[in-house]
């Protein structure tokens, strides 16, 4: 499913096929599907207002609003026959029942951040179930829990928590426009992972609609399914409507800093040293790295810039002695640091420092560039020589377009067993690498392919220096290069190629849960968990 990589001619032919074949072959199913929705709704006029077809003037604005990667919004990208934007569980139940009945595929979208567009693109006639209207957030400050619907964003969640308490937070990601439906179901980590683990490590209940249209909670779905949806990609098993999460205590003051160092300032040696100590810092401290090319102020040529991005759960006077003991080479000074509240730090790490907290409620990315991502897990410090090889790759791309983001584990992450949730990447990892390449999508397929080839070459270069057997990857940094399903009839052996990279030995348990709850593989996509064949 590499649409942006197709040749211009094949893309044109595909567009013709899409434009003419789909309506002819799917029009009957399409109309029958709409009739089915009306029949399954207690108020047919109400549900009709939540349905968008290509004839609706709002269709493309609804479709494109939550597409976060323009790589999948070209004229050649397959479009849904129908978009359904439910307001209540019964609308979701109707959508599932009717897509099954009329042999359409369903794609579920909460925030639209799937890196390969799987929440809003399919190669067969499909319906998008867009959860953007299911975004209520109910904070129970006394019991330190929240029910958050799947269409809410991480930013909306953080904002509502802070409305109730300045000393409660939640350990999810740093991008506020991510939908919690997908982000949580793949793991979800941010600046507090070393203290409190992942988002999925702090989920205590969920509401889900299964393949039969049943509305389930943790008790009625059972512990196996509840285990699977917390890190195994919930869309393989049903449609999560809401998560119940437990909040974590945060101090009234946290300390943040971003320190940039280039090659002239010993960046290579600093990164190598970071590799040796970052996962051993005090669990209140996280320092992640962003590696990218930059313009040198010395001779006008390119250099490498390493940004040390940090949050510490406490004041600067407590942080400085810890840094002097653990990482004196960075040379952190008091004037490099800023004290603020935890909720303010969520804006700081999204490049919105000083903006009003209401900025967290904005569901739109500040800028949208096409991108491709890949991931790895580092288990041994990367040598200076290998780092110098990475610098050569970064020099090839425009300043700021190619980058690596490395986040340290240790702390709480090393204390949780691999089998506790489907997310297995725990002890033994220094941390994950996210490789990213951005470019302007202007219909130039050749240029897009050039950038994609660049990140693939970089990923190949890193093969000897990252995890092995399997070479692990992170589900939320979805990468179809590591393997894909061959339609809904994909075998266990075919899916295992990519499945063990995301889930390691947890893949087998996920397959058994899938076989139990969705034996006909209705909820499938290019990297969904397959069921085992039905015996008989």
Kindly summarize this structure in a few lines:
With 536 residues, this protein is an alpha+beta fold. The protein is built from 16 helices and 18 strands. Helices cover 32% and strands 19% of the residues.
Q: Structural class from helices and strands?
A: alpha+beta
Radius of gyration: 23 Å
User: How many DSSP E strands?
Assistant: 18
Distance between the termini: 33 Å
Q: Shape, please?
A: globular
Mean pLDDT: 92
For the biggest sheet, the summary is:
7 strands, antiparallel
What is the tally of helical segments?
Answer: 16
Low-confidence stretches: 1-25
Word description of this protein:
The protein is an alpha+beta fold. The protein has 16 helices and 18 strands. It has a seven-stranded antiparallel sheet with strand order 15-12-14-13-17-18-16. It is globular, with a radius of gyration of 23 Å. The N terminus is likely disordered.
Features:
single chain; seven-stranded antiparallel sheet; 536 residues; 16 helices; alpha+beta; disordered N terminus
Q: How are the elements arranged and paired?
A:
Elements: H1 8-40, H2 44-48, E1 51-52, H3 59-65, E2 82-84, H4 89-101, E3 105-109, E4 126-130, E5 137-140, E6 145-149, H5 154-164, E7 168-169, H6 180-186, H7 193-196, E8 203-209, E9 215-216, H8 218-221, H9 223-229, E10 239-246, E11 248-249, E12 254-262, H10 267-277, E13 285-295, E14 302-312, H11 316-326, E15 338-340, H12 342-348, E16 370-378, H13 384-396, E17 402-406, E18 431-439, H14 445-461, H15 492-503, H16 506-517
Parallel strand pairs: 2-4, 3-4
Antiparallel strand pairs: 1-2, 5-6, 6-10, 7-11, 8-9, 8-10, 12-14, 12-15, 13-14, 13-17, 16-18, 17-18
Helix pairs in contact: 1-4
């Amino acid at each position: 499913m590499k649409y942006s990589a197709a040749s211009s001619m094949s893309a044109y032919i595909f567009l013709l096929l899409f434009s003419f074949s789909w309506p002819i072959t799917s029009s009957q199913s399409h109309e029958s599907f709409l009739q089915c929705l009306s029949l399954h709704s207690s108020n047919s006029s109400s549900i009709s207002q939540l349905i968008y077809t290509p004839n609706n003037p709002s269709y493309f604005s609804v479709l494109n609003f939550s597409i976060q990667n323009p790589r999948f919004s070209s004229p050649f990208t397959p479009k849904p026959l129908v978009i359904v934007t439910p307001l209540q569980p019964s609308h979701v139940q109707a959508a599932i029942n009717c897509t099954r009945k009329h042999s359409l595929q369903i794609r579920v979208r909460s925030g639209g951040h799937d890196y390969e567009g799987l929440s809003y693109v399919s190669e067969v006639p499909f319906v998008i179930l867009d959860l953007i209207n299911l975004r209520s957030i109910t904070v129970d400050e006394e019991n330190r829990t929240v029910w958050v619907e799947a269409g809410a964003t991480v930013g909306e969640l953080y904002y509502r928590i802070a409305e109730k308490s300045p000393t409660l937070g939640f350990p999810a990601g740093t991008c506020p426009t991510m939908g919690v439906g997908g982000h949580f179901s793949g793991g979800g980590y941010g600046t507090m992972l070393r203290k409190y683990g992942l988002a999925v490590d702090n989920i205590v209940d969920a509401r889900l609609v299964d393949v039969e249209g049943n509305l389930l909670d943790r008790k009625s779905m059972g512990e196996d399914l509840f285990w699977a949806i917390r890190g195994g990609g919930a869309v393989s098993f049903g449609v999560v409507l809401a998560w119940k999460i437990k909040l974590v205590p945060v101090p009234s003051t946290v300390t943040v800093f971003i320190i940039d160092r280039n090659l002239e300032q010993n960046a290579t040696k600093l990164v190598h040293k970071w590799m040796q100590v970052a996962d051993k810092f005090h669990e209140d401290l996280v320092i992640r790295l962003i590696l990218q090319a930059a313009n040198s102020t010395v001779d006008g040529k390119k250099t490498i810039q390493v940004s040390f991005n940090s949050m510490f759960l406490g004041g600067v006077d407590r942080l400085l002695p810890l840094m002097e003991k653990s990482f004196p080479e960075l040379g952190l000074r008091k004037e490099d640091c800023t004290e603020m509240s935890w909720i303010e730090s969520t804006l700081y790490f999204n490049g919105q420092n000083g903006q009003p907290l209401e900025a967290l409620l904005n569901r739109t990315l500040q800028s949208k560039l096409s991108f491709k991502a890949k991931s790895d897990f580092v288990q041994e410090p990367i040598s200076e020589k290998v780092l110098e090889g990475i610098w050569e790759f970064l020099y090839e791309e425009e300043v700021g377009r190619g980058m690596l983001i490395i986040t340290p584990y240790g702390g709480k992450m090393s204390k949780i067993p691999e089998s506790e949730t489907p997310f297995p990447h725990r002890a033994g990892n220094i941390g994950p690498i996210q490789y990213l390449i951005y470019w302007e999508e202007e219909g130039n397929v050749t240029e897009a392919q050039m950038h994609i080839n660049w990140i693939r070459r970089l990923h190949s270069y890193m093969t000897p220096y990252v995890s092995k057997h399997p070479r692990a990857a992170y589900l939320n940094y979805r990468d179809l290069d590591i393997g894909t399903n061959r339609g809904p009839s994909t075998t266990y052996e075919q899916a295992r190629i990519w499945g063990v990279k995301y889930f390691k030995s947890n893949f087998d348990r996920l397959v058994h849960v899938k076989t139990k709850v969705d034996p006909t593989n209705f909820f499938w996509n290019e990297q969904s968990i397959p069921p085992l064949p039905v015996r008989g």
